[in-house]
Amino acid sequence: MLKNTVRLLQLGLKNLQVIQGESAEDFSELAIEVTTAPSQFSLCYPNINSLAIESAFSTADKSAQFSQQHTIIFIDASWRKALKMWHLNPWLQQLTSWHFDNPPEGQYRIRQTKQKNGLSTLEAVTYVLTNTKQVDCSALLTLFLKMQQLRFAEVRNSNPE
């Protein structure tokens, strides 16, 4: 059964590019693009230098920060693995980074996190797209909730009382 929220994003977003890997070699092409035009990229990952993305939502000139050509990078991994990827790919540390100060409450009930303001990748992407590029993500969020309902039904049916 599908549990990876990036797969759901792939179903609903046409401008989504997924690159799998962990080490610098896995992301060499992207690293070259980023270092060539760093102003065209930002990273959604909380760190000591990250800014609250909500501050960008409220600025009058958010179109300059998040133009249609601007690429926002998300790391889809457990928090431990994401931190490892952050350290293995120093080019990520050169980007403007964003974190969430006031995200919506996470709805991902299949997996839990102890991370404050932690959301699934799908929830993080929809939060950012809705608020920076005015994308209607309601269909993706509905799909997300339906996927969880199916997963819970599958678990109930496989463990009868």
From TrEMBL:
Pfam family, one: DTW
Keywords: S-adenosyl-L-methionine, Transferase, tRNA processing
GO molecular function term, any single one: tRNA-uridine aminocarboxypropyltransferase activity
InterPro entries xref list: DTW, DTWD2/TAPT
UniProt domain DTW: residue ranges: 1-156
Protein EC: 2.5.1.25
EC class (word): transferase
Family listed: Belongs to the TDD superfamily. DTWD2 family.
Name the UniProt record assigns to this protein: tRNA-uridine aminocarboxypropyltransferase
